[in-house]
Design goal:
Blueprint: H1 9-26, H2 37-55, H3 58-71, E1 75-81, E2 83-106, E3 111-116, E4 123-124, E5 129-133, H4 136-206, H5 212-280, E6 282-284, E7 289-294, E8 301-302, E9 307-324, E10 336-340, E11 348-356, E12 366-373, E13 385-402, E14 407-409, E15 412-419, E16 422-427, E17 429-434, E18 437-442, E19 449-451, E20 462-468
Helix pairs in contact: 2-3, 4-5
Length: about 475
């Protein structure tokens, strides 16, 4: 038996009943009028239901019947144009806000705290005096160093005078060689003269021409000239030794000058150190900022390198956070970061990425970054937790449709593009959302029109009558 033969009698009666009624009323056959589109749709639906009852596939039969019925009439739908928008591509970031600069002001010398001029929360300028140590002992040390410097200057002057005298002595010794040689020549001539005179006197005494006394005088003169000549020879031989002695004395005196100069420099350094210590007794803020912590009290003794204040600079702030590994190759310095802090009422704060780690943390699979966040109003404080997004880039002419234009069926995401009086089903891939609009990555282009109502009644190719969004 054919499928048409298995249609239940009730279905056939439901269809033929009205005809029989019309025949009975007139008593004879009447001209048969062609059924309208609605009647045909109802008849097809009845046949489909009957077939479904026979074959046991009611769902597909109902869907087929619904499809054929929908195909016979146009569905009125609202439509909206696919918009072209600019989209910022971002990646989430979480981290903490830190002070842009944080300095612990320490004592550089030991001493007793005389005064603290600022306290917790006070704002300070760079170079402002914030604390003072007791300067009395340091003042005495400065005076002592000054006196030592004066003594060193006097010692250097004496050493230089001695060195100059030694130098003059050396010059005198060197110049005495010519006089020694001249003296030797004179003593030699005198010796020769007295020797000749002595020989003559001896001859005369033998001839009894002169008295013995004259011979004695001549002998004495000769011996005196001989002694003088020997003395001149010794002095000339001693000349090199005298030069060496004078040179050694000069070198010694010059060494004394160098020692005095070194002592003067040491005294000058002592004086400079004493002045520095006295200056270090006055503590100044190294940066502009605010006092985040006070570590000492007035009257307390502070050893060297003891913390006094912690000063932080909070404008701008430094944001230190992490982004997911997938953005490791896209995050770079100069990109914009937008942060939200819960304690600030969810207000957004814009910043700029300044540093990006060159490596991915293998434990957390994240990338560390730093950003500069302006804080001119002082609403943010170091230490706050913040979350937000880094703007990687901006894409233009991205397709967006109203969220109401998207439907989901059998695991598929789709829209219906309306063109030439018909709805065309498109499978789409969705992206970002913006103010009731949703990005269509694939499946629709800017400028096309999509249905935003009656989606449950549409199928691919279904006839539609379109109206702008908001009308029906």
């Amino acid at each position: 038996m054919r499928p048409a033969d298995r249609v239940p009698l009730s279905a056939r009666q439901e269809y033929t009943g009205p005809v029989r009624a019309r025949l009975g009323e007139t008593g004879g056959p009447r001209p048969r009028r062609a059924p309208g589109p609605a009647a045909r749709a109802v008849a097809l639906a009845g046949v489909a239901l009957a077939l479904a009852g026979c074959w046991g596939d009611s769902s597909s039969a109902v869907e087929a019947a619904r499809t054929r019925a929908a195909a016979t009439r146009a569905v009125a739908v609202n439509v909206a144009r696919v918009e072209a928008r600019a989209v910022e591509r971002t990646v989430d970031v979480t981290g903490s806000l830190l002070a842009w600069e944080e300095v612990i002001l320490n004592t550089s010398i030991p001493g007793t705290v005389a005064r603290l001029l600022v306290d917790l929360g006070d704002r300070v300028r760079a170079g402002q005096v914030v604390a003072e140590l007791d300067p009395r002992e340091l003042t005495l040390g400065l005076a002592q160093a000054d006196a030592g410097l004066g003594a060193a200057r006097d010692g250097l002057a004496r050493a230089r005078a001695q060195a100059e005298a030694a130098h003059a002595q050396l010059q005198q010794v060197r110049e005495s060689r010519r006089s020694l040689e001249a003296g030797l020549n004179r003593s030699r001539a005198a010796l020769e003269e007295t020797r000749v005179n002595l020989e003559r006197m001896r001859t005369l005494v033998k001839g009894a021409l002169v008295a013995q006394r004259e011979l004695d005088v001549a002998r004495t003169q000769y011996e005196s000239a001989l002694a003088q000549h020997e003395t001149s020879q010794v002095e000339l031989r001693q000349y090199p030794d005298r030069v060496r002695v004078a040179e050694a004395q000069l070198e010694s005196d010059r060494s004394g000058v160098r020692v005095a100069e070194a002592d003067l420099k040491r005294r000058e350094a002592d004086l400079g150190l004493a002045r520095k210590k006295l200056t270090d007794a006055t503590l100044r803020a190294p940066i502009e900022g605010a006092v985040a912590r006070r570590h000492l009290n007035p009257g307390q003794y502070a050893p060297e390198n003891t913390p006094v204040f912690t000063i932080v600079r909070s404008d701008p702030l430094k944001f230190v956070g992490t982004v997911a590994e997938r953005a490791a190759l896209e995050v770079r310095p100069g990109q914009t970061v937008r942060l939200r802090v819960e304690s600030a009422g969810g207000r957004a704060f814009a910043g700029r990425v300044t540093r990006v780690s060159p490596a991915v943390d293998v434990t957390s699979r994240t990338v560390l970054l730093e950003a500069e966040v302006p804080n001119r109003e002082g609403l943010l404080k170091p230490g706050l937790f913040a979350r937000g997004a880094v703007v990687l880039r901006e894409d233009r002419d991205v397709a967006f449709v109203p969220e109401g234009a998207v439907s989901y069926f059998a695991g598929l995401t789709r829209v219906f593009v309306v063109a030439d009086g018909a709805a065309r089903e498109r499978t789409v891939t969705l992206g970002a959302r913006q103010e009731g609009m949703i990005e269509v990555v694939t499946g629709a282009r800017p400028g096309e029109q999509v249905a935003t109502s009656g989606l449950a009644q549409l199928q691919d190719g279904a006839p539609v009558t379109a109206a702008p969004a908001g009308r029906r």
